[in-house]
Design a protein that fits this description.
The complex is a heterodimer of chains A (about 220) and B (about 350). Chain A is mainly alpha-helical. Chain A has 2 domains: about 70 residues; about 110 residues. Helices cover about 70% and strands about 0% of the residues of chain A. The radius of gyration of chain A is 41 Å and the shape is elongated. With about 350 residues, chain B is α/β, with parallel strands linked by helices. In chain B, strands 4-3-6-1-2-5 form a 6-stranded antiparallel sheet. Chain B has a 6-stranded parallel sheet with strand order 10-9-8-7-11-12, sandwiched between helices. Chain B is built from 10 helices and 12 strands. Chain B is elongated, with a radius of gyration of 23 Å. In chain B, helix 3 crosses helix 5. The two termini of chain B are about 20 Å apart. In chain B, about 40% of the residues lie in helices and about 20% in strands. Chain B folds into 3 domains: about 120 residues, Globins (Globin-like); about 90 residues, Beta Barrel (Elongation Factor Tu (Ef-tu), domain 3); about 120 residues, Rossmann fold. The chains are: A mainly alpha (about 220), B alpha/beta (about 350).
C-alpha cells in the first residue's frame, strides 16, 4: 500500500499557495555587506512578470472550470452522464496486450524451467539419500550379526541382554561410519549443483538445508 | 485466450497484477476451468449459484473487492471481441455483458455477505516448527481470530515466502480453546509452497489461513460404531484430528489407527501417537511399513494390515491420490460396504485450487 498524498493534502501548513499579490510583495533579506547579490531591480521586475503569468493562469483555470460546468449542465439537460465515460473507455491497444502476453510467457517458461531443475535435484538427492541409508542399514545388520557371532564364539555367557547390547553397538557403529562417509560425498556433490543454481532466489538455500538435519 | 485476458486485465487495472503470483501458467488453467464450469452449467441455476457464491467468498482471500469486477468484465469482453473478430456482434456483446453482470453480482454479494461474519483470511503465527523426518514438517500456528472448523477439514494456506501461492492442508487436531492448529506438511520435490513450509518456515512467521472446507472425512457424533482409520504419509493429519474428536466426545467408541509409511524413517509422528494410545485404552495405533526389509514392526501395505483389523467398523482413509484410490479399491474388494468407506486424497502441492 503506497500512501501517496496529493499536493493539496500536504500537511505543511506554513507553505501557503503563492498568489500573484504575494509574489509581487515578496521581500528578501539582504546579503551581508561586501557580498555580491542580484540586482534588486531585476529581481523585482522578474517577480512582477511571474505574478502576471500566475494571474493569467488562474484566470484561465477559472474560465475552464466555468466551461466544464456549462458542459456538464448541457449533458445533464440532454440526459447523458458525463462522468464514467471519460476515464474508463480508453481503447485497449492490442499491441500492448500482445507485448505484455509475450513478457508473461517468457517469465512463465523461465520459472517452469527453474522449478523443474529444483524438482530434479531434490528428487535425485532424495533417491541418493534412500540408497545410502539402505546400504548403511544392510552393512550395519551384517556387522551386528557378525558381532553376535563373535561374542558367542568367545563363549559369552551373559545371556540375551548382553548379546543384544553387543549387537546394537556393532550396528550403530557401522551405520554411523557408512552414513558419515556417504553423506559427505553427497554434500560435496550438492554444493556443486547449488553453485550452478546461480541467482535463483531461495532455492539454493533450501537444497542445502534439506541435508543438514539428515538422520544421525 | 486466457493469456490475452490477463494481459488485458492488467492493462485495464494494473493494481490487480499484484494479486497473482509471478508465474501465471497454472492460473490460466484455473480460469478456463472456472469459466468452463460456469458456461456448461448455465441452464442449471441451482448448481451454478452455490458454485459462484463459493467462488466469490473464496476470492476474498486474494483481496478481491467489488471494484475489481467491472475491470474483469471489460477484460473478458475485450478478449472475446478479439478472438471472435467478425462473429462478435452488438447483440452478443450485450448478452455477455448481462451474463457477466449476473455472475459478478452473485459473487460479490456472497463475498459481501461473508465479510459480515468472517475475515477474508486468518493470520496464524507459527509457534512451533519441527522436522521429525526428512522432508516432513509438523507446524503449530496460533490464529488471530476464533476459527470454527470440524475435525477432518482442511484450509488453503499461504506463507509470506511465497506470497499469493495457496495450497490446501488438513488440520491435524480438533479445535482447541487456545485457537491453535497443527499442520503436517510433506515436501513435494520442486513444490512451490511445501518446500517453503518445510525448509523455509520458522517460528514467528505468519501464515495466512483460508476458511475451513471439506466434509469428506466428517465424523458425525450420531454415526454409531467403532472406527478404523487408514493413513498414508501426511494423510495422517485429518485422521489424528478425528481421534481427538472421539477423545472429546467421551471415547464412546473404539478406534484402530493404521499409519502407513514406506520406511520406518517416514513414521514421523509415532511418539505422540504412542502417547495417545498409552493414555486411551480405546485407541490402538499400528504403524505399517511397506518398503523397509529391516523394519522390526508390522510390515506390509497399510490397507492389508487394516483389513486384518476390520470387524465392520466405519473406515476412514486419507493419503496421496494413489494411496487413497488403491486403498479404497482393496477395501471394496474385501467386502467393506461402500457407504462405510469415507476417504479424502490430500491435495498435492501441484494444485487443488480453482
Amino acid at each position: 500500500m503506497t500512501a501517496e498524498m496529493s499536493w493539496g493534502d500536504h500537511p505543511d501548513r506554513e507553505r501557503q499557495p503563492l498568489t500573484p499579490d504575494r509574489i509581487r510583495k515578496q521581500e528578501f533579506s539582504r546579503t551581508p555587506l561586501g557580498r555580491r547579490g542580484y540586482s534588486e531591480d531585476e529581481v523585482r521586475s522578474f517577480l512582477y512578470r511571474v505574478a502576471e503569468d500566475v494571474a493569467a493562469g488562474d484566470k484561465e483555470k477559472a474560465d475552464l472550470r466555468a466551461y466544464i460546468d456549462r458542459l456538464k449542465q448541457w449533458y445533464k439537460e440532454h440526459g447523458i452522464s458525463a462522468e464514467p465515460a471519460v476515464p474508463q473507455q480508453q481503447a485497449l491497444s492490442v499491441d500492448a496486450i500482445n507485448i505484455l502476453s509475450r513478457a508473461q510467457q517468457t517469465a512463465d517458461v523461465q520459472i517452469a524451467e527453474a522449478e523443474e531443475y529444483a524438482r530434479r535435484i531434490l528428487g535425485e538427492a532424495r533417491q541418493q539419500y534412500e540408497v545410502i541409508l539402505a546400504e548403511a542399514q544392510r552393512q550395519a545388520e551384517e556387522a551386528a550379526e557378525q558381532a553376535v557371532g563373535d561374542y558367542r564364539s568367545r563363549g559369552g555367557e551373559h545371556g540375551a541382554e548382553a548379546e543384544e547390547l553387543e549387537r546394537q553397538i556393532a550396528y550403530l557403529r557401522t551405520f554411523a561410519d557408512v552414513t558419515r562417509v556417504q553423506l559427505r560425498a553427497v554434500l560435496a556433490g550438492l554444493a556443486e549443483e547449488v553453485d550452478k543454481l546461480g541467482h535463483l532466489p531461495d532455492q539454493d538455500n533450501q537444497v542445502l538445508q534439506g541435508f543438514s538435519p539428515a538422520h544421525r | 485466450m486466457p493469456l490475452y485476458f490477463y494481459s488485458a486485465l492488467f492493462l485495464i487495472s494494473p493494481e490487480t497484477r499484484d494479486m497473482f503470483p509471478v508465474s501465471m501458467a497454472s492460473q490460466r488453467d484455473r480460469l478456463v476451468n472456472a469459466l468452463g464450469r460456469i458456461v456448461s452449467n448455465v441452464d442449471r441455476v441451482e448448481e451454478l449459484v452455490p458454485y459462484l457464491q463459493q467462488l466469490g467468498r473464496d476470492h476474498r482471500k486474494f483481496a478481491v473487492v467489488a471494484e475489481h469486477y467491472p475491470a474483469v468484465g471489460r477484460a473478458l469482453l475485450a478478449t472475446l471481441e478479439h478472438f471472435l473478430a467478425d462473429r462478435w456482434t452488438p447483440a452478443l456483446a450485450e448478452d455477455w455483458t448481462k451474463a457477466y453482470g449476473l455472475v459478478a453480482q452473485v459473487m460479490s454479494d456472497a463475498a459481501a455477505d461473508a465479510s459480515k461474519t468472517t475475515p477474508p483470511w486468518w493470520e496464524g503465527e507459527i509457534i512451533s516448527h519441527e522436522t521429525p523426518a526428512l522432508g516432513i514438517a509438523v507446524i503449530r500456528a496460533r490464529l488471530n481470530y476464533q476459527y470454527a472448523f470440524r475435525p477432518g477439514q482442511s484450509a488453503s494456506i499461504s506463507h509470506p515466502r511465497r506470497p499469493r501461492v495457496w495450497r490446501f492442508y488438513s488440520f491435524a487436531n480438533a479445535p482447541r480453546p487456545d485457537n491453535t492448529i497443527d499442520l503436517h506438511v510433506r515436501m513435494v520435490d520442486g513444490g512451490v509452497l511445501s518446500a517453503a513450509l518445510v525448509m523455509g518456515a520458522r517460528r514467528g512467521d505468519v501464515l495466512r489461513v483460508g476458511a475451513p472446507v471439506g466434509d469428506k472425512l466428517k465424523l458425525s457424533p450420531d454415526t454409531p460404531g467403532d472406527l478404523l482409520l487408514i493413513a498414508g504419509g501426511t494423510g495422517l493429519a485429518p485422521l489424528k484430528a478425528l481421534v481427538e474428536q472421539v477423545m472429546h466426545e467421551g471415547a464412546s467408541r473404539k478406534v484402530d489407527l493404521v499409519v502407513g509409511a514406506r520406511t520406518s524413517r517416514e513414521l514421523y509422528d509415532l511418539e505422540s501417537l504412542s502417547k495417545m494410545a498409552a493414555e486411551h485404552p480405546w485407541l490402538t495405533v499400528v504403524p505399517a511399513v511397506s518398503h523397509d526389509p529391516y523394519y522390526r514392526g508390522t510390515r506390509g501395505n497399510a490397507v492389508d494390515v487394516a483389513l486384518q483389523a476390520w470387524r465392520g467398523q466405519q473406515v476412514f482413509v486419507c493419503g496421496s491420490t494413489e494411496m487413497a484410490q488403491s486403498t479404497v479399491g482393496r477395501l471394496l474388494d474385501a467386502g467393506v460396504p461402500s457407504e462405510q468407506i469415507h476417504f479424502d486424497e490430500f491435495t498435492s502441492d501441484k494444485g487443488g485450487e480453482s
